[in-house]
Amino acid sequence: MGRVVAVAAVLGLAACAAPGEPAPDDPAVTLRLAETSEYPSLNPLDAMFGITGKIYDGLYAVAADGTVAPDLAVGDPEPDASLTTWTVRLQDDVVFSDGSTLDAQDVAATYTTVVDPRYASPLASSFPFLVDVTAVDPTTVEFRLSEPYAAFPSTLTVGVAPAEALTGTVLDSPLNREPVGSGPYVLEQWQAGESLTLAASPTYRGEAPAVERVVVGFVLDENVRTQRLRSGDFDGAQLSPRAAQALEGVDGLTVVAHPSADYRAVTLPQSVPALADPAVRRALNLAVDREAMVEGILRGYGAPAATPFTVAQGDAFDPDVQYEHDTAQAAALLAEAGWAPGAGGVREKDGARLSFPLMYFAEDALRRDLALAVASDLAEVGVQVDVEAVDSAGAAAGMGSKAFVLGGGDQPYDPDTQVYTALHSSYAAYDPDDAYSNPSQYVQPEVDRLLDAARRSTDPDERAGMYRDVQQVLADDPPMITLVVLEHTYAARGLDGFDGVQEVVEPHEHGVAWGPWWNVETWQVAS
């Protein structure tokens, strides 16, 4: 009870101020945001993006235009001719929040720890070829890879931690609760299950943030987040399109939508015999009405998608690869594949019914609505889909034999990291500990060949062409039913009180570390 009272007091004091203005008894400019759930950790080696980006700096950081730009680094990474050795040069004026100097030894220790199996970082799979990191001198780091990897620069966004703090494992690291970064904010207070407060770091190398304090309240239930935004407890939150739209114009709140590479798709595990036939998978793709999903479920905040590639991948994206909504063609394809209408209108073949279960996260209303829409659309062509609400453990356990409403686009700033683990056959075997990699168990030799060649190519134009070729193959042999790519929606107030608010191309990750607040450390109070 005492903790609840304490948090209410913090938020209530801030709520007395006008939007974007400091509370009358709080000299700091404070931003109050509602997060969908509590952070499990503040360890930068636990997640590539998120709230740790406010506390830690990476060698590179996401820029507004959807590229990665130097952060701690000076200039772009410098590859050798074979793309197996990359040199990164560092700024020389950086200190951690404990006052110690950040140098190349800390960078080397961070990346060495990421790939150390004893540390068990979930980021290790992002560095498949990294074999050695060397501090050449205090401001120069050399990465050595076992194979050429053109996408390597896009992975260098891991928050750099002090070498001496990289002890234990990702599960018991002191950094999980006591972060020591070089970023614009430090952890001021963390009340488990309730809120987290960041304060401007006095040791930050850049200009001191005008927003001196960010208070993040953890509110799982979207209805409660909405009510507390409406009441003025919070200045902003991530919400579903439907909930965000309902707040437009309420007490100074406005809807902010950012482009993303975050897609939703229905996996089609090929351990289900009917789903192993590419003709059936094409038919399922033709049977769903993506435009209706965008307009109805997303309220227009998104676009139809046919593959995991999105406009965020630039020239590597082929906009001509799309599926029309064509139930007649879908029905014809299913008939040609031997699936004839049977009892109750469900198609049958050799005594088997064309049906499969479809899982979605129980707490995710958007995925639920998409699952129900897919089930309704496929019923029109004689396919029975049984929707099933699950938790994360249930999803991982069922992924080998059940379809799932997948969210993808974790690392979209290079086409390789956007699609490789989702499509390559080396990830096709069902692994309950890595259930989200290639969850359809997709095996397509031409896709493998193109993906492998593209990640080794030194020619950007050649790489982009290979990825466009991949999408042409996927159109004929789809691994899943890719449905939509999202715009992430947020409700916020007081943004006009600051200069420097920008939109950004977001990854799958969304929440208060993104949205209009992704660059909050650079805002200035409007004059």
Description:
With 527 residues, the chain is α+β, with helices and mostly antiparallel strands. The chain has twelve helices and 22 strands. The protein has helices spanning 2-15, 104-114, 222-231, 241-246, 278-287, 290-297, 327-336, 365-379, 392-398, 415-423, 445-456, 460-476, and strands at residues 30-35, 60-62, 68-70, 78-79, 85-89, 130-137, 140-145, 185-191, 195-200, 213-218, 236-238, 254-267, 302-304, 340-341, 347-349, 352-353, 355-361, 384-390, 403-408, 480-492, 498-499, 524-525. The strands form five sheets. Strands 1, 8, 9, 10, 11, 12, 13, 17, 18, 19 and 20 form an eleven-stranded mixed β-sheet that branches. β15 (347-349) and β16 form a beta hairpin. α5 (278-287) packs antiparallel against α7 (327-336) and α11 packs antiparallel against α12 (460-476). The longest helix is centred in the last third of the chain and has 17 residues, at 460-476. It is globular, with a radius of gyration of 24 Å. The model is unreliable at 1-25 (pLDDT under 50). This is ABC transporter substrate-binding protein. InterPro entries: Peptide/Ni-bd (IPR030678), SBP_5 (IPR039424), SBP_5_dom (IPR000914). Belongs to the bacterial solute-binding protein 5 family. It comes from Cellulomonas xiejunii. Residues 68-427 form the Solute-binding protein family domain.
Using brief descriptors, characterize the structure shown.
eleven-stranded mixed beta sheet, 12 helices, Peptide/Ni-bd, ABC transporter substrate-binding protein, 22 strands, 24% helix, four-stranded antiparallel beta sheet, single chain, SBP_5_dom, disordered N terminus, SBP_5, transport, alpha+beta, 527 residues, 22% strand
